[in-house]
Amino acid sequence: MRIKTALTASALVLVMGSAWAQADQARAEKIVSGSCFLCHGESGESSSEIFPKLAGQHANYIAKQLENFKSGIRKSTAMADMSSRLSADDMLALGQYFESKPVEPEAVKDTDLAAVGRYLFNSGNKYSGVPACASCHGKDGLGSANLPRLAGQYASYIETQLTLFNQRERTNDNAVMHAIVSKMTPLEMAAVATYISGK
Prior knowledge:
- This protein is an all-alpha fold.
- It has helices spanning 2-40, 59-71, 77-83, 88-99, 111-123, 134-137, 155-166, 176-181, 186-197.
- Helices cover 59% and strands 0% of the residues.
- Helix 1 crosses helix 4 (88-99) and helix 2 (59-71) crosses helix 3 (77-83).
């Protein structure tokens, strides 16, 4: 009897977990179709390089960025307004929604520049002290729960973010990025961005 009760309780937890997951999915779909799709697309594949692709991005990272926009730690007039209406649960639901979407890598426009970027991403620049991007973001550029997925992101978006880190206009993520990009040339930023966008 005790075993049967334990099995019934386990089944109930699974059913309840599934119901919560469906509710979160429905909530995320409603939010996306109400506002997110305008810039980021229904599946997180933005139609403009101004806006980051969110497809395949880590759920926790998306939730953190939304919270940072809401609190003002990360600056964006548009995103401050959008995120002001979101709860912490909404943010995580959106993160999970976008993380589940397939990623489409960018077509590399400059193979020579991408080759330089590949070297920098994997080995860094020992002459200027720039460490390998792969040491934090992984050789495949997939990052982790707390570090962004860079693979497949728009090259121009990555380059813009590196520039913002260098100018101290983006300060919401760890200070390591400030130290790294301060040693990078504009050419190195463009090269790394070009390479990883095609992964």
